[in-house]
Amino acid sequence: xxxxxxxxxxxxKPQAHAAxxxxxxxxxxxxxxxxxxxxxxIASEGHAHTLCDHDGHCLVPSVVHYAADGKVxxxxxxxxxxxxxxxxxxxxxxxxxxxxxxxxxYDLPYEIESAATGGxxxxxxxxxxxxxxxxxxxxxxxxxxxGEDELGGELEGAVITVPAYFDExxxxxxxxxxxxAGIKVLRLLGxxxxxxxAYGLDRKQEETVMIYDLGGGTxxxxxxxxxxxxxxxxxxxxxxxxxxxDLDRAIIQWMLDAAGISDELSYAQLNSLASIARHAKHxxxxxxxxxxxxxxxxxxxxxxxFNSLIDGLVEKTIKACRRVLRDAxxxxxxxxxxxxxxxxxxxPRIRERVSAFFGAEVHTEIDPDKVVxxxxxxxxxxxxxxxxxxxxxxxxxxxxxLGIETMGGLMEKIIPRNTxxxxxxxxxxxxYKDGQTAMSLHVLQGERELVSDCRSLAMFELKGxxxxxxxxxxxxxxxxxxxDGLMEVQAKELSTGIVSSVVIKPSYGLEDKDIEKMxxxxxxxxxxxxxxxxxxxxxxxxxxxxxxxxxxxxxxGKSLLSPAEYSRLEDGILQLQEVLEGGDSDAxxxxxxxxxxxxxxxxxxxxxxxxxxxxxxHSIEEID
Amino acid sequence: MxxxxxxxxELFSLPVSFQLENAQLEAAxxxxxxxxxxxxxxxxxxxxxxxxxxxxxxxxxxYVTLKSPLKRAAYLLKIAxxxxxxxxxxxxxxxxxxxxxxxxxxxxxLIDDEDLEGLDAMKDSINKEKTSILAHFETxxxxxxxxxAKSTYNQLQFVYKLLDEIDKAEEKLLDY
Lengths: 624, 176
Description:
heterodimer; A: 624 residues; alpha+beta; 7-stranded mixed β-sheet; 16 helices; 25% strand; disordered N terminus; disordered C terminus; B: Helix Hairpins; Monooxygenase; 2 domains; 72% helix; globular
């Protein structure tokens, strides 16, 4: 099936197939592996665009569904299954990457349990226990496939973005997922860095830029400085529980208050409220007022009202920006550019407030949902060896200090945060007992002084130290952090020339043999049945039509349709749902087409009504 | 080009001296990074990539060492054959030590009073003192008075530590 590519505004036209135009073109992709949605993009000659599916969906929901027969679905298809089979539908897996069960203090719709070996928890699904790395690998596979289909062949590799604050374990888990998905990681790139690259800020001489990233459920703000081609994250901040969903909730609360509804609502009612709120929020991006209808109540929400509903939330994000500026000892006047990332930054009030606070140029030209993937693709193209223009080098820093445990449960920093990577630091230790032949080392990451306040990365024992009097053996421990922020620790006994060296990986990372086993496992279950796939696709198509129609009926059905027309469409939905139960993909396809036909008139009226609404706020002169 | 050089100064094509042309250091650092960074070797074999990793790590370490006046001073002493970190024969002036103890007491009372302006003023005066000690180190080192230079370096360590503590105290007080 042909993939539809959409060009980014300001990014030029999509390039012709690279393979056609240039023989030596190396194929590489940029991946934004997000908490809620993921994207893949490709670049050529300094222009990038995201890749979309045949329906024009560029965003792949970061959702994976595991069926009892072992079948795995990813993205929109999987998201649809969430309502009926939430226990086997894994969403927001990014929050589990490189984390232990003890780190998870919130409810998940699926069940997790501690892994036998420690480390990351496993998710219990109908298809067996899955680690967060395996789930992420499924999402990556889908994105890689989309890239391969577009570029026509095997890929050189991918740049995958991670949040700037991601620690060693989270980065390692991301890299493990890529290995499991069979894609080479050219570089793990910070999300804010990617956003800055998308806007070409890496090509300026000296800049201090703020990246304001308000996603569906998280808010991240990063302050970066570019000096002599070195991109440095100066400070990061934000709120892991603040996002676009909170804007929707503000509208829902307003609706409930205005409609005088105080009863307990069903899951389905809450769902449709959420969908109405989302529509209203989107409508208010371009128009001054919007009509909202829920059950028998309807009202008008103005942008001004909406602004006052969300001002408290917006102020919270500004406060986080202030804090980051203070952390980095940077004055607000020093900021030359602000880059807006995440779908929620489309909200006009947020743009107003951010622009007023910083008084700097606020970049919104590139679709805020896609800007990170675009930056990743640009960097992937350069790293794969496709040169264009000046050569820019991005140097990253380590976001959190690395150190080891010393006497008294204290953390001794060996590599402080914000050190440019790659970096290697060595530290010497000695034995404290006569004849001591082993020594244990506890590797930590964090900024606090007490070991208990830092993240434990690894514990390992250095054995085979030649027996000597206390203090005579000299053990040199070297920390090596690579350009992706991943660490290796080596220990050597120096005094006798006897070298015993160990290389360790953090405890939340996977052993290479674990990854090998997972790769083998995935091969054995990869035998896909063509017929089953066709059936699945027709079901998804049908479900999409039903979903779309149901939500359209909720919003405009009462106002645009006669009662007879309304019930005819409702009957159509019921009929399609019946056919859906059966296993005949052709029948489902036909019924879907029929229902689609039946909705054409309704769709036309909705379009007219939307145009009227859109024009309502403008004067005649403007339209002329 | 090989990175096997006698010392970090030579690596950056700089003269072995405390006086440092910042622009020259930056330019040389950038040039070395763009030549040896692992990003330039993503498609190379493992051996080449490991080399790139080690070389860039060294370049980064060299840059940090030369950029910071305190670290540069210690490194110069090391080249001159003197272990700057050896503390068992500290030759610190008694007057200097007394002054340091007084300053610590001042710092503690400023923290107790949550006196941010006082902390700022203290930082300014210590920064002035730092500049004059750095100049003194340069004179001694250039004249080959390494023993004296080492003792000046040890004074610098105190001053840098104090500045660091003021910063930490300010951060703590500002935290909301």
